[in-house]
Write a structure and sequence with these properties.
By secondary structure, the protein is α/β, with parallel strands linked by helices. The chain has six helices and five strands. Helix 5 links the parallel strand 4 and strand 5.
Length: about 180
């Protein structure tokens, strides 16, 4: 059965490694017959959550920027794949800001059940992405019908476009998408 898959790339760098892996995951999901939408946070305006909690009553944010449209897509997707460059062993600021701004989804009848994280980092090793995984897990834990299914870590990728030459990472990202 075809699923609605939303892939969100949070890197602001051109030719970023995390975005290359995200595109491979999107291709895998599309090749598996899923309805795939790819969103990049590049050139998007995402302001910080004010913590006013008005969205908990209205299910709409009082801030007018690109976050509302993206969060609408998040809430209407069956599967979420977030691609994140690792900065200081953590989720990047733009992804964390987007997750905070998806607060209107909390009281809603959101569709997503399966959440995936793809990371890219200069440093390699399991400890590199664990804090970022914990950050996303904390967000997922607030949505009782959802679960963090898998994390794909692309370590040792420093320069832009380096993932393009790493067949192992490209294949793993493609398979992640194909098997959502």
């Amino acid at each position: 059965m075809a699923k609605k898959v939303l892939v969100i790339s949070s890197s602001l760098r051109n030719n970023s490694n995390s975005e290359m892996l995200a595109k491979q995951a999107a291709k895998g999901a599309q090749d598996a017959g899923h309805d795939v939408e790819f969103v990049t946070l590049k050139d998007k305006t995402l302001n910080f959550c004010k913590g006013c909690l008005a969205c908990q009553k209205t299910m709409k944010c009082v801030i007018r920027d690109d976050a509302a449209e993206i969060c609408g897509k998040v809430g209407n997707s069956d599967v979420l794949i977030f691609a994140n460059p690792i900065y200081y062993y953590e989720l990047c600021g733009q992804l964390k800001t987007l997750l905070d701004r998806c607060n209107p989804l909390f009281p809603s009848d959101y569709r997503f059940r399966d959440v995936y994280l793809i990371t890219a980092s200069a440093e390699d090793g399991d400890e590199v992405y664990k804090t970022a995984e914990g950050g996303l897990q904390g967000w997922v834990d607030c949505f009782e019908k959802a679960k963090l299914v898998k994390v794909l870590s692309g370590g040792g990728l420093t320069d832009p476009s380096e993932a393009e030459k790493n067949e192992e990472y490209l294949k793993s990202a493609y398979e992640l998408g194909k098997n959502v």
